[in-house]
């Protein structure tokens, strides 16, 4: 039977379930059908000081899998079947490097300031822990709609405690979006050669998403025309992105 948590509550994951090796972390939300919202989930692998040890410990839409194989992001939002969206992150507990003390899971709103959006307009946000082997729900934390100016939320975290893994329902919000969240966890945005740092510059993120979508599309005449127009309008940003990827 799944455990429903309130903000600040903590619960064991593996102590009473030693067979638990892999989990799915589902982060979901509902924007009442407003297609103008673009939310992204992410995971931060953190050391004992609560900071990433390097850029590769930030898992997000442009860095979907950790080098250890312990964390894998399944990509952009999917329908949850109830009018909302959900993004999934797979965790292999046995592969998490020993220097990692916790993994924090967050959701951010893209271009929130420009679009005058915040988490007060987002409903039914939740984080859910699933047993990957059985598909059974282990933990669910439904975030309350008590946010106002926040554009980024740390929904929850898993952390080591006496050799076991536990879950903490956090529900802490930040203004400043992904950039503020990244600084909180030690991402150094001045490293311009990092593809991770690109995510913290909103002007570039749109190009990453559009470019990825276009490059995956079968190039009909219509798409070719759209591609030419897009490249012309965003030539400088695309060059920045390609340079970042080459040097990262």
Provide the descriptors you would attach to this structure in a database record.
248 residues; alpha+beta; seven-stranded mixed β-sheet; six-stranded antiparallel β-sheet
Brief sketch in words of this structure:
With 248 residues, the protein is an alpha+beta fold.
So how many helices? 6
Helix content: 10-25%
| Strand element count | 13
The major pleated sheet works out as: 7 strands, mixed
Helix-strand makeup class: alpha+beta
Give an overview of the whole structure.
The protein has 248 residues and is α+β, with helices and mostly antiparallel strands. Strands 1, 3, 6, 7, 8, 10 and 11 form a seven-stranded mixed beta sheet that branches. Strand 12 and strand 13 form a beta hairpin. The relative contact order is 0.18.
Protein topology:
Layout: E1 3-5, E2 10-12, E3 22-30, E4 39-46, E5 58-59, E6 71-73, E7 78-79, E8 85-92, E9 102-109, H1 112-115, E10 123-131, E11 137-142, E12 152-161, E13 164-174, H2 177-184, H3 195-198, H4 202-215, H5 221-233, H6 235-247
Parallel strand pairs: 1-11
Antiparallel strand pairs: 2-13, 3-8, 3-10, 4-5, 4-9, 6-8, 7-8, 9-12, 10-11, 12-13
């Amino acid at each position: 039977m799944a455990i429903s948590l309130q903000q600040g509550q903590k619960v064991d994951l593996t102590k009473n379930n030693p067979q638990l090796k892999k989990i799915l972390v589902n982060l979901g939300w509902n924007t009442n059908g407003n297609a103008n919202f673009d939310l992204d989930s992410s995971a931060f692998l953190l050391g004992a000081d609560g900071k990433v040890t390097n850029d590769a410990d930030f898992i997000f839409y442009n860095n979907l899998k950790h080098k250890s194989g312990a964390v894998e992001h399944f990509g952009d939002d999917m329908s949850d079947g109830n009018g909302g969206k959900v993004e999934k992150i797979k965790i292999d507990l046995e592969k998490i490097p020993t220097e990692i003390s916790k993994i924090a899971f967050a959701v951010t709103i893209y271009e929130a300031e420009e679009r005058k959006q915040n988490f007060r307009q987002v409903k039914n946000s939740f984080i859910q822990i699933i047993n990957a082997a059985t598909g059974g729900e282990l933990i669910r934390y439904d975030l309350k709609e008590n946010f106002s100016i926040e554009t980024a939320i740390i929904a929850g975290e898993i952390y080591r405690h006496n050799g076991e893994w536990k879950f903490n329902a956090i529900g802490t919000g930040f203004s400043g979006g992904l950039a503020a969240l990244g600084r909180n966890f030690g991402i150094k945005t001045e490293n311009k050669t990092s593809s991770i740092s690109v995510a913290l510059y909103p002007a570039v993120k749109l190009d990453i998403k559009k470019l990825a979508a276009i490059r995956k599309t079968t190039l009909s005449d219509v798409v070719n025309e759209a591609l030419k127009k897009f490249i012309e309008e965003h030539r400088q940003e695309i060059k920045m992105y390609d340079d970042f990827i080459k040097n990262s």
